[in-house]
Amino acid sequence: MSLPRLGGLALVLIMGSLDASAQMSKSVGWSSDYWYRGISLSAGQPVFQGTLNYDFRDGWYAGASGSSARNAKGAGVAQAVLFGGVSKRLDAATSLDLGAHVTSLVDAPSLAFTEIYAGVIRQSYSLRLYYSPRYLGEKKQTTYIDFNTAYSLSSSWYLMLHLGWLEAMSVERTHFSNRYDARLGMGAYVGFWNYQLSFNKVRSSEPLTVDAANRWVLNVSYSF
Where are the alpha helices (DSSP H) in 21-141? Predict the structure, then answer.
């Protein structure tokens, strides 16, 4: 059985094990651009997004998210993500995070891919390493290093920083562009609303064939 099918099966089993001890959180949002690891998955157009997450008392979690997006021809499509994992405390301020997610586009099954990840979460920052055997339908194994941090300015306002590096592990790297992406911005909580304005930047080893211009992105989400 392939890793994508194993990943999907594992996530379905986690979702099927929900019980009264699970805490559910939901959010819906709007973004001026679906910026993902240095490229736009919405051709620079606004998107609507939603997430459903379950947290269990023993550290396990599972959920699903959906977003509108656009394919290479600019047509509107839907993206779905299933995710699950476990977070275990190493000490009072540090947790180990292990998990996987399966991502697919409704009208492009060939672009479905699975990633597994391991990382450390400590207070205001997180660091994770992702591995995919077939990233976004490419016949390439990839790794992605993901770093995120936030700095509180007040009870409502905060600064945020994201740094990422995507690299192909295959010997044959033709037609695949290794790249780094960065995001620096400011956010504010107003009740159950979260507003974020960030500048997103990308640099690649080869010219990208998708929309990857550096740009400002506005995100608005509501949690309930």
Answer: none
